């Protein structure tokens, strides 16, 4: 066998092997590889006869990617570009309580007010610092707050 023939044979075998790898080891899309887990908390606003939903989606190899939302929709999914929901893109922990028609929220980040929020509930957000957050983790119940996610 000539040198050129061996070279062509190796290339052909390499191509066959490469095609076999693609056929038998089908690659899944990233969205299938990182399944999302959802956490939803329904909050009753009795003064208005309405409900608001606190949601958090968690995904990633080590479940370290999160997004938290305040929504008027009970649907599980969270739209990352939503103009209907308050979005905390770092997956913030929220401390909240209801007073009349207002949901008071304490968090280390503030969400932008969505232009199409479909509820009469007033969402009042207050930014807290790390020290206050650590204090609330220990005493939120005594101060009349609930924590999301629990």
General description of the model:
The chain contains three helices and eight strands; from the N terminus they run ααβββββββαβ. The model is unreliable at 27-33 (pLDDT under 50). By secondary structure, it is an alpha+beta fold. The chain has one domain (31-148). The chain has helices at 3-24, 30-33, 130-139; strands spanning 37-45, 50-59, 65-71, 86-88, 94-99, 102-107, 122-127, 146-148. The radius of gyration is 25 Å and the shape is elongated.
Give the helix proportion (percent range): 10-25%
- The rounded Rg comes to 25 Å
Distance between the termini: 72 Å
On the 0-100 scale, what is the average pLDDT? 88
Shape type: elongated
* Largest sheet data: 4 strands, antiparallel
Annotate the secondary structure layout.
Elements: H1 3-24, H2 30-33, E1 37-45, E2 50-59, E3 65-71, E4 86-88, E5 94-99, E6 102-107, E7 122-127, H3 130-139, E8 146-148
Parallel strand pairs: 6-7
Antiparallel strand pairs: 1-2, 2-3, 3-4, 5-6, 5-8
Summarize the structure.
The protein has 3 helices and 8 strands. It is an alpha+beta fold and 150 residues long.
Keywords summarizing the entry:
24% helix; elongated; four-stranded antiparallel sheet; 150 residues; four-stranded mixed sheet; alpha+beta
């Amino acid at each position: 066998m000539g040198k050129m023939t061996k070279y062509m044979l190796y290339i052909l075998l390499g191509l066959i092997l490469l095609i076999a790898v693609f056929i038998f080891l089908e690659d899944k899309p990233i969205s299938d590889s990182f399944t999302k887990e959802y956490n939803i908390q329904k909050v009753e606003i009795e003064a208005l006869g309405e409900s608001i939903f606190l949601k958090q989606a968690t995904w990633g190899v080590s479940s370290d990617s999160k997004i938290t939302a305040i929504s008027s929709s009970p649907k599980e999914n969270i739209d990352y570009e939503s103009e209907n929901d308050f979005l905390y893109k770092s997956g913030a922990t929220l401390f909240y309580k209801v007073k009349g028609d207002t949901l008071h929220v304490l968090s280390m980040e503030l969400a932008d007010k969505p232009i199409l929020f479909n509820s009469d509930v007033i969402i009042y957000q207050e930014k807290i610092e790390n020290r206050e957050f650590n204090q609330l983790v220990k005493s939120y119940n005594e101060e009349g707050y609930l924590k999301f996610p629990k």
